[in-house]
Amino acid sequence: MSQYAYRNSDTSDTVPELPLSLSHSEVVQEQCNDVSLKEIFERVLPASEISNVATGYFLHNSLLIRKWVPVSEDGVKNDVYQIVFPTKFCSLVLKVAHDECGHFGVRKTYLNILKHFFWPWMKRDVSAYIKTCHVCQLTGKRNQTVKPAPLQPTLTVSEPFTHLIVDMHGSAAMCQVWL
């Protein structure tokens, strides 16, 4: 027996639902057409053999699913069933997992997606998406400190009223009162 506790579950109860407004047939069709998934389709196992392997691919109602058994921190192994997503729909998953879930960093976004979905080069895609996120670029990270700009010497005036500096703010309404 293994040093890890192991929980096996029925695949029909644990296959994740499709997100967003995607239909089952759309995803199945795109999986079949996606060139990046061709190699994965060649490694598909029969459903009867999937319970014997830690990581493998199988078809469930024509949908390509990945079985993966990660080891948690407490040493418990749980079967995780992930929908293998075609490249065409990866941007939808990234948008939901990052933009609509709090703009987490690469690690948290990747782990959240990994709970339900998989595609080749997923970590690279998550990292690239987050690096180009406009909101994240503007706000930065919580633990990120921006160093102040270095001090620059300022010019000093030798005589009073040699320069007149006026601060303006937008268009002021015309009025007859002097302030």
Automatic annotation (TrEMBL):
- Give the protein name, as stated in the record: Gypsy retrotransposon integrase-like protein 1
Instruction: List, for all copies, the residue spans of the domain called Integrase zinc-binding.
Output: 86-140
Q: Which InterPro entries match?
A: Integrase_H2C2 (IPR041588), Retrovirus_Pol_polyprotein (IPR050951)
Q: Which Pfam families match?
A: Integrase_H2C2
Q: Which PANTHER family match?
A: INTEGRASE CATALYTIC DOMAIN-CONTAINING PROTEIN, PROTEIN CBG26694
